[in-house]
Amino acid sequence: MKTILIIGSNGYIGSGLKKNLKKYYKLICPSRKSGFDITNFKKLSKIFKKDIDIVINLSGQNSSKSILAKTIIKGNQNIIRIVKNQKKPIIYYISSTLVYGYSSKSVSEKSSTKPVSNYAKFKLKGENLFLKSNLNYKILRLSNVYSIKKNNFINNMINANGRSKKLFVNNINSYRNYIHLNDVTMIMTKMIEKNLKYQVYNIGHENLTIKQIIKVIDKKTKKKINFIDENFSGDTNFSEKNSYQAFYDDGENIDLVKKIYAKDLESFGYNLEEFFEYENNKLNSKKMKPHIKLDKKENNFRRFVKRILKKNFYIYLNRDKFD
Q1: How far is residue 75's CA from residue 69's CA, in Å, rounded to a whole number?
Q2: Which of 9, 98, 144, 209 could form a disulfide with 14 if both were Cys (CB 3.0 to 4.6 A apart)?
Q3: Which DSSP state fits 243?
Q4: pTM
């Protein structure tokens, strides 16, 4: 029986993957609670002294830039350093289709990469570490993974179905690729069994808009999802009473603001990551102490976001004038 080391086994995908693989393989699943740290070369080396056939690296699921740098860059450098002179294990590096950036066309493994978010940029840097190595590796680029048991946007839509509480959504007509967690774990299990020819693989399923997903849920349940489309057009009621969580949860919106309005943000004098982190912490913790300095900036920043997104939406609607 082959032995698989799963790094990040307690995460969203890792937990599901363990259930599939434990039937056929011996699993080694170190955790932070047990003192495991992928950035610690000595601790990582001790684990690799065991007879490991396959490594699945799921680490790097974080919004902090500093943690991403340590986990993805230093962590994978440590793995490469440890196994560079060994015939095994095979390394499965889990990346993201976000490395392609925004595209109006379907992408393939041969498409050019244009990452926008910090997460996507670091994932691509991690890919390049393996591409430059002489290891036996596979890079798996996952699209948007969902399940009804996980707190994600599709799960939120299902929970909002038939309720009076309004669900705030944006980019309702933008296409994204979605794949269920069970399909991801099944595909990865099958891939491990096969002798794969190529180094890079996209793992996704179907391109859908949020509007299409809402229609499917409404039809299946015979109930309506009560939602507000926050596409920030001139006619949209974008008041301070609205929930901004939909905006914060949408990484593409955040990255769009950072990319297009980088100079504006600099002149505005605001640290976007700090604001993003604070807002999420505040929503998740009732005991959080008030941050007066940051709270004062919130209203200014929200007005700023409203203006720039309205401006961007106008440019989109009148794109023939700007081409």
Answers
A1: 9
A2: 9
A3: -
A4: 0.69
